[in-house]
Design a protein that fits this description.
The strands form 3 sheets. A 5-stranded mixed beta sheet has the order 10-9-13-11-12, sandwiched between helices. A 4-stranded mixed beta sheet has the order 2-1-3-4, covered by helices on one side. Strands 7-6-5-8 form a 4-stranded parallel beta sheet, sandwiched between helices. It is of the alpha/beta class. It has 21 helices and 13 strands. The chain has 4 domains: 81 residues, Glutaredoxin; 200 residues, NADH-ubiquinone oxidoreductase 51kDa subunit (Rossmann fold); 85 residues, Roll (Ubiquitin-like (UB roll)); 77 residues, Up-down Bundle (de novo design (two linked rop proteins)), CATH 1.20.1440.230.
């Protein structure tokens, strides 16, 4: 393939799910990946690792890994390709002893059932020219749909921008879902893959894209199998009417969720964010204008267009603060999971009305409002609306709405350190403020007494001089801890 050995090495050594082995190391081992992220560490990941180290048979290796996207079932590990929820040593050992590497398919709505439920009707209306692409884009804009991957950019505006650049164009869907605490995309994908695929096809039709790339994190192995099966059926159902659809597997790298790093990864390279301009809407995947979206943004497209047909009232229901948001809630609550709740809800309402309250014996102390990178808020700021644009004044952001609830049993600096270690591990190393800053900050935060002056200085450099959102947001939990939980330092 005319690829230099050096290029192969740099890619193989970049991704966590590739292993560099000796030439004659052909021994087959089952990999047990134990999640060490915030929620799993809260529910005993360290003890699990200690117990497994003593009990696992020789054909297993343990890897310490970041969030595997199942925080509502913490502690979690993945044996081979199979997730073990509420993991205990005996569950894990049984799977290893049975040589388990095959993921179990979720119980999802298959194409046949999706079609009889009316799925793909909106896409068919597009194909039969009942709408023009401009009309569809107008409906999406009117509905006020904002990107649900974190940045919250207007979806309709993005489609317009991509269409303004000459074809051929590409759609790239981000199912990397690596932000610790986030599991909403998997939640919907495991239930209704065709609702998402219809949204993707409508988007591709609206921007006249010839190819769609679906980038799915490697941790969601069962979803990969499911999508492969359903895409094959879809191609038979719509012969010659679909764009090319390529399903691509991630290889364990958080930064590959950053849009330009994801494109690099799809192109077969190390997932390092690109410098901008040019923006990917103009020059993206393989140099083509690219519409990049989070899974969930596209998931709601068919419903929005259907409701937009019903009249203004229903569109308004979907708009802005009155709309619903999918909160991935984990931590010290009775009912963790994905909760569809009004955008702008307060943490107290979310916990009490949707999550069954706090776990017995726990009192709400703080929460991560947007995964590891969104900072940490104290429970004491009353009635703070959880929405786009409302948390910045408090040094935080909602991002992908991953709410990790902490209680009076939790030491905040410990979780801030967990987040910083995660950023250090996941920094791609391209720019110095992030590569050196996350490493140095993690070291300083491991000290018994934090050097506040040095840490604040480091945080400023990281936030202001890093190339991408990883390095820019990495100081958020650190700064929140200094600002709100100084008495614990
Ligand atoms: C370090 C980093 C990781 C990210 N990870 C994801 C991710 O896993 N999934 C995602 O949809 N967006 C992720 N994003 C945001 C994307 O860069 C991009 O804004 C988003 O996918 C755009 O889609 P949307 O407009 O539908 O929200 C990440 C951003 C950064 C900086
Ligand atoms: S901020 Fe970090 S992750 Fe982003 S480009 Fe720089 S080194 Fe890489």
């Amino acid at each position: 393939m005319s690829i230099a050995t050096g290029e192969i090495y740099e890619v193989a050594s970049f991704y966590h799910h590739f292993n560099l082995t000796e030439k004659n190391d052909s021994e087959k081992k089952i990999c047990v990946r134990v999640c060490e992220s915030i929620t799993c560490s809260m529910f005993g990941a360290d003890d699990l690792i200690t117990d497994l180290t003593k009990q696992l048979p020789e054909n297993a290796v343990i890897q310490h890994v970041p969030c595997v996207g199942r925080c509502d079932s913490a502690p979690v590990c993945v044996v081979g390709k199979r997730p073990v929820l509420n993991a205990t040593p005996d569950k894990v050992c049984t799977l290893v002893n049975n040589n388990v590497t095959v993921p179990s398919l979720p119980n999802y709505i298959k194409l046949e059932d999706a079609l009889s439920d009316g799925c793909y009707k909106t896409f068919k209306s597009c194909l039969s020219k009942q709408f023009t692409p401009s009309q569809v884009i107008q409906k999406i804009t009117d509905a006020g749909l904002r990107g649900l991957g974190g940045a919250g950019f207007s979806a309709g505006k993005k489609w317009d921008i991509v269409r303004s650049f000459p074809a051929p164009r590409v759609v790239a869907i981000n199912i990397d879902e690596g932000e610790p605490g986030t599991f909403k995309d998997r939640h919907y994908l495991e239930k209704a893959p065709h609702q998402f695929l219809e949204g993707m096809l409508i988007a591709a039709w609206a921007v006249n894209a010839s190819t769609c790339f679906i980038y799915l994190r490697d941790e969601y192995a069962a979803c990969h199998e499911m999508l492969s099966i359903e895409l094959e059926k879809l191609r038979t159902e719509f012969p010659r009417q679909l764009p090319d659809i390529e399903l691509r597997r991630g290889a364990g790298s958080y930064v590959c969720g950053e849009e330009s790093a994801m494109l690099e990864s799809i192109e077969g390279k190390r997932g390092m964010p690109r410098l901008r301009p040019p923006y990917i809407a103009e020059k993206g995947l393989f140099g083509k204008p690219t519409l990049e979206h989070n899974f969930e943004t596209l998931y709601w497209i068919p419903e929005i267009i259907r409701k937009a047909k019903g009249g203004k009232e229903e569109i308004i229901e979907l708009r802005g603060r009155k709309g619903l948001r999918s909160f991935s809630v984990s931590g010290r609550v009775c009912i963790p999971g994905v909760h569809r709740a009004p955008a702008g809800i307060s943490i107290h309402e979310l916990i009490n009305d949707y999550c069954g309250g706090m776990l017995s014996g726990h009192k709400l102390k703080a929460y991560f409002p947007g995964g590891a990178s969104g900072g940490i808020l104290p429970a004491g700021i009353k009635d703070l609306p959880l929405d786009f644009d409302t948390l910045q004044a408090h040094g935080c952001f909602i991002g992908s709405a991953a709410i990790i609830v902490l209680s009076d049993h939790d030491a905040i600096p410990e979780y801030a350190l967990n987040a910083m270690r995660f950023f250090k591990e996941e920094s791609c190393g391209k720019c110095t403020p992030c590569r050196v800053g996350t490493d140095k900050a993690a070291e300083l935060m491991s000290e018994e007494k934090w050097d506040l002056e040095k840490l604040t200085d480091l945080a400023t450099v990281m936030a202001e001089a890093s190339i991408c959102g990883l390095g820019q947001a990495a100081p958020n939990p650190l700064l929140s801890t200094i600002k709100y939980f100084g008495d614990e330092l």
